[in-house]
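Design job #97: recover the sequence.
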């Protein structure tokens, strides 16, 4: 089946896209709403009308057949915020949404839309394009993998245990505002940042250290809204630190770092258990964490205590 793919150019194109993506947006953002579909669609249209699809940095491509019937669309633009682990201010294109109407699936339209936005990104001089998908969209994920996209970050989640959680026995309370503790934590985090972005020589290490505070802002762990826990041995040597915060009804682990001289499980598993105890005390039902794909040790520790992949952040370097 042949399709014409072109930039959106009219309010009719926008309205067609609003209708196409409404089911997904309803499922994602309006869960539990008692409003009618008509009211929800109006809210949906108002929300999307805040996006200027005719801006230079945004593009909505629409697909139609040769009878001018709307078949699908793809929304791409410059990413609104830099990835925390980016090495420098590298602009990247971001695919915000891909829609193919049910009756036009199976004809390769999704692939053609993805290739079109890659051409758009190259023409803009962008070297990378990224996107987000979740575990429910298995067909879409397979398409992205076949086009050369790779995972660069994940969200993992688990339900908070309904039964009692045994507190860790080797967690030694240590004040997180201690300069010694914060100094160790910042050092480990900087080392982690360097290993993820890749450092090959001393001059590059110096560059990374100058960029590090910008791309990994130091959290104010003395802020009472954070749940912060540290673990040490009997000699009060710091083994690790974890901190998190409640967001949108879930307990989000914002970071977990372990002393490089110690075994990961020795420090990580008690800290993860303690975070779940905190979440339960706050009557939260879900644990969640956003994590870079290269943090393999932490991912393994999370899987051991029941975390599962739910969201995939993928990217592709353009040639």
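Job complete. Output follows.
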């Amino acid at each position: 089946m042949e399709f014409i793919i072109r930039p959106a150019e009219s309010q009719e194109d926008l309205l067609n896209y609003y209708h196409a993506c409404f089911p997904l947006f309803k499922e994602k953002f309006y869960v539990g709403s008692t409003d009618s579909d008509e009211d929800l669609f109006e809210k949906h249209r108002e929300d999307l009308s805040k996006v200027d699809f005719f801006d230079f940095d945004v593009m909505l491509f629409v697909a139609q057949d040769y009878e001018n019937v709307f078949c699908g669309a793809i929304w791409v633009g410059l990413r609104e915020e830099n990835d925390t682990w980016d090495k420098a201010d590298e602009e990247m294109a971001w695919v915000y949404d891909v829609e193919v109407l049910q009756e036009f699936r199976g004809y390769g339209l999704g692939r053609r839309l993805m290739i079109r936005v890659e051409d758009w990104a190259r023409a803009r001089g962008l070297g990378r394009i990224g996107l987000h998908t979740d575990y429910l969209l298995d067909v879409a994920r397979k398409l992205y993998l076949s086009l050369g996209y790779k995972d660069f970050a994940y969200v993992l989640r688990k339900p908070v245990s309904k039964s009692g959680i045994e507190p860790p026995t080797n967690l030694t309370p240590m004040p997180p505002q201690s300069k010694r503790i914060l100094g160790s934590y910042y050092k480990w985090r900087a080392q982690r940042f360097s290993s993820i972005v890749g450092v090959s020589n001393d001059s590059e290490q110096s560059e990374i250290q100058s960029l590090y505070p910008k791309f990994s802002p130091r959290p104010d762990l003395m802020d009472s809204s954070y749940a912060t826990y540290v673990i040490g041995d009997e000699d009060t040597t710091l083994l690790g630190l974890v901190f998190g915060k409640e967001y949108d009804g879930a307990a989000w682990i914002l970071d977990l770092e372990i002393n490089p001289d110690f075994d990961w499980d020795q420090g990580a598993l008690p800290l993860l258990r303690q975070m779940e105890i905190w979440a339960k005390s706050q009557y939260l039902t879900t644990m969640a964490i956003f994590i870079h794909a290269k943090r393999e040790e932490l991912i393994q520790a999370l899987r051991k205590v029941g975390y599962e992949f739910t969201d995939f952040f993928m990217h592709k370097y353009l040639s």
